[in-house]
Write a structure and sequence with these properties.
- The relative contact order is 0.06.
- The two termini are about 55 Å apart.
- A six-stranded antiparallel β-sheet has the order 25-26-27-24-23-30, with helices on both faces.
- Helix 14 crosses helix 16, helix 20 packs parallel to helix 21 and helix 21 packs across helix 24.
- With about 800 residues, it is an alpha/beta fold.
- The chain contains 25 helices and 39 strands.
Length: about 800
């Protein structure tokens, strides 16, 4: 099959990251051409500040040199600016007349410095701070001139000012506001920053509005609207950036604040994709590295025609390093009348921490000096964690809670090169720093992939992120890590499920081949997860070799290698005949111990594996089916006796519990799944700590979801009040199916609801009647193959070799 032509316009970090991701997925799919209007390969733009400060050379911040393009058979049109795109003829035209055809086009033209439209802005010595040319201009100016003025008290302006100071210039920063870095810091933190920078020799003119740039051919000064002036031999405008989308706009692509793209990074033209600082996605434009790299993975996914990647936006935090001063900010760190503020300030040590809360949930944080716990606060903000239980100590950080794996950037910088960072894998500081520098790493996932640091228990994650911030400097930013399903793939649980659903994948081999698995056979993690996801889409599917031993043997393995057997007792009800049958089995197979479980059933312990089919045969003949006490499945429905006997009962909870268990038994779930029905609000069946609970009241049934009675107890969320048993059954099936289809494998309902939010569940199950009924129907369909008792199948001889002992005889 002939290769298609792919052209990338823009040789920056976002576009080239897309090419790198594409080469991993489909290295032979395209003839690739890259147009870059600078005479260099792809370099790390966020490292220009260290280059200006003489801390790095251009070669050291180069990401892809000329050899890389040659090695990957990429045509590199270096120093050629594309001036036109002919969408009808599907070709691009460069400034020098070069014309090339494309099948797919990727626009990554980035952004440009925003230049204030001041009189005199066209004079020599007036520049922005965006590329290598600007750095060269500043370095040359420092050789011949003394006074520099930087307009802009944001991150870019302060970094430019610091670099010019390192070049020996006398630097004044002009800022229109009264607070530095007002997008990243509140006023208190900004005041501390300004004081620290003044101590280093930086000068500031705050609340000054520029009016005119002075001089004849070359700048000599800057006049303000109050009539005052400041001398300047060099004037750097660092007041922001603006998306560079003029080329796209001129060719008729839909543009607003940037090139408008969908969740697949596709423009209005299906053959043209766009990525990076030049795009607008869901009304947002991004300037930090982490979101752009997430976009790159999605764009590469669709250019490879895999078709399941989605970019849904990024909530970012910012870890900043300005002239050796550590800063962290995320979210809304100002607050309003409906929020609360937790504040810690130690002027002597230069430490400032502010956390903004709404209903005991973090919505923003601002840290100065001690940024040790920034990533911890950010993760809780992203997860919506309720901090009530440790609110009184949260400002003292995660170390106060016993996690020694976090350290701030100052302490990391002071560590010896041979200091061990990752104890699990024996990785020291110098190995990580060298990998970041030599392999051009930017994100936590990159470091994990190349060094294994933070890839095991994760307790050193804070230290690794601090090393990233310290080594990269500048505007190192870490978006919440996109957690892949396992090491065999870079795809998340959601992306794997979407791929299976949209590509109609039928088995493990399909998944690994179509979704570009890194391993041939997968691993213990992904095999079990994909087995469940495949089963959700194809109810008849089952690969026993991709299940836990308990699910393969249909019994709970015990510490001595024997198994326990738990027959199902619907709603906890039984008859004398049932008890006789269980007792007969126990005596016949000499069961050493029996116990009544918390789920109102009888557990028989100490049964040998080879005896399991015989035990099941006798139980099946007595009318029992598997209790699935061993599976990531529906376990039991606990009930009280309800109004049948109890004088407090309001409804027949036992009968309803039996109906619910008959509806749901045998269903495979992301994790174990428990139900309960309490006959009155006294809640003897503990329905409010179950995955699906019903509390009967005089007027009907209160439905509760997402409870957990394990190590971390979680009380359920109230879902809805219903009038009839039929409604309870419908809502139970719909909720169960939504959990089955949406949760990650091995995610209980409690963390699932905390992750996605109760509003999402309500929208799917309560607000949309048609969707609820569709969920109900899919659950009923899924139950047909699930409610074939596995014990009876094996008792009848299915897979009998699995239960035979292996006898080894001496030679």
């Amino acid at each position: 099959m002939a290769k298609q032509n792919l052209i990338l316009i823009g040789n920056g970090m976002a576009g080239m990251r897309t090419i790198e991701e594409l080469l991993k997925l489909e290295p032979e799919k395209y003839n690739i051409t890259v147009f870059g209007d600078e005479p260099y390969g792809n370099y790390n733009r966020i490292m220009l500040s260290p280059v200006l400060a003489n801390e790095k050379t251009l070669e050291e911040v180069m990401l892809n040199d000329d050899n890389w393009y040659q090695e990957n058979n990429i045509r590199f049109e270096k120093g050629k600016k594309v001036t036109d795109i002919n969408r009808v003829a599907k070709k691009v035209i460069a400034e020098d007349g070069t014309e090339l055809p494309y099948d797919k086009l990727l626009i990554a033209t980035g952004s440009t410095s925003f230049m204030l439209p001041l009189p005199g802005a066209d004079k020599q010595g007036v520049i922005g701070f965006r590329d290598v040319k600007d750095v060269d201009t500043m370095v040359n100016a420092a050789l011949n001139y003394k006074k520099a003025v930087v307009i802009g008290g944001g991150l870019l302006g302060l970094e430019a000012a610091n670099g010019l100071m390192k070049q020996g210039m006398d630097v004044t920063v002009v800022h229109i506001g009264d607070s530095l870095m007002d997008r990243q810091l509140d006023k208190d933190a900004a005041t501390m920053l300004k004081t620290s920078l003044e101590e280093k020799g930086m000068k500031f003119l705050m609340s000054h509005a520029s009016e005119e740039i002075l001089g004849d051919e070359r700048v000599t000064g800057l006049r303000f609207n109050d009539g005052s002036e400041v001398d300047a031999d060099l004037l750097v405008m660092a007041v922001g950036i603006k998306p560079n989308f003029e080329l796209a706009k001129s060719t008729g692509l839909h543009c607003e604040r940037g090139i408008v793209v969908s969740d697949t990074m596709q423009t209005f033209d299906p053959n043209i994709y766009a990525i990076g600082e030049c795009v607008q996605h869901r009304g947002q434009v991004y300037g930090l590295v982490a979101p752009l790299f997430e976009q790159a993975k999605v764009a590469a996914n669709h250019l490879a025609e895999l078709g399941y990647g989605r970019y849904e936006g990024t909530v970012t935090s910012t870890m900043l390093k300005v002239t050796g001063i550590s800063l962290f900010s995320a979210g809304d760190f100002i607050g309003d009348e409906d929020t609360e503020e937790l504040l810690f300030r130690d002027v002597a040590s230069g430490t400032y921490k502010k956390i903004i809360l709404r209903d005991n949930i973090i919505i923003g944080a601002c840290l100065y000096g001690d940024t040790m716990d920034g990533t911890w606060y950010f993760q809780m903000m992203k997860d919506g964690t309720n901090i009530s239980d440790f609110r009184d100590s949260i400002l003292f950080g995660q170390a106060h809670l016993g996690d020694a794996g976090h350290g701030d950037e100052t302490r990391v910088a002071a560590m010896a090169d041979n200091a061990e960072i990752c104890g699990c894998n024996g990785i020291c500081k110098s190995e990580i720093v060298n990998a970041i520098s030599e392999k051009k790493l930017f994100t936590l996932d990159d470091v994990r992939a190349h060094t294994k640091a933070s890839a095991s228990c994760g307790s050193c994650t804070g230290l690794v992120e601090s090393l990233l911030a310290h080594t990269l400097g500048g505007d190192y930013s870490q978006a919440p890590s996109k957690k892949s399903l396992c090491a065999c793939t870079e795809l998340t649980h959601e992306e794997v499920r979407t791929g299976i659903r949209e590509l109609h994948l039928k088995d493990h081999e399909d998944v690994r081949k179509s979704l570009n698995w890194k391993t041939d056979d997968g691993c213990a993690v992904c095999r079990q997860a994909t087995n469940y996801y495949l089963l959700c889409e194809n109810p008849d599917y089952n690969d026993p070799e991709s299940r836990f031993i308990n699910e393969r043997a249909h019994g709970n393995i015990q510490k001595d290698g024997t198994y326990s057997v738990v027959p199902r007792m619907f709603g906890g009800m039984c008859t004398p005949k049932d008890l006789h049958a269980i007792a007969d089995v126990a005596e016949k197979f000499k069961v050493p111990e029996m116990k009544v479980t918390g789920g109102q059933r009888i557990d028989m312990f100490g049964i040998k594996k080879e005896d399991l089919p015989l035990v099941w045969k006798d139980l099946s003949e007595a009318g029992f089916v598997s209790g699935h006490a061993y599976g990531k499945a529906m376990r039991t429905c606990k009930t009280c006796i309800g109004d049948s006997w109890c004088r407090m009962g309001t409804q027949d909870s036992t009968s309803l519990g039996i109906k619910l268990e008959e509806l749901t038994w045998g269903s495979w779930m992301p994790h174990k799944y428990k139900l309960a029905v309490s006959g009155c609000p006294r809640n003897c069946a503990e329905a409010t700590i179950k995955d699906f609970g019903v509390v009967c009241v005089d007027s009907g049934y209160e439905i509760h979801v997402g409870g957990n009675g394990g190590i971390k107890v979680r009380v359920t969320d109230f879902l809805i009040k219903l009038d009839t048993e039929e409604e309870v059954l419908e809502y139970c099936a719909a909720f169960s199916q939504y959990y089955r289809e949406d949760a990650h494998y091995l995610e209980r309902t409690a963390p699932w609801i905390e992750r996605v939010g109760l509003d999402k569940i309500k929208a799917a199950v309560l607000d949309d009647e048609a969707n609820r009924k569709a969920l109900y129907e899919r659950f009923i369909i899924s139950q047909k193959p699930s409610q074939i008792d596995p014990w009876k199948k094996h008792a009848d001889g299915v897979d009998e070799n699995q239960f035979k002992s292996i006898k080894i005889t001496a030679a």
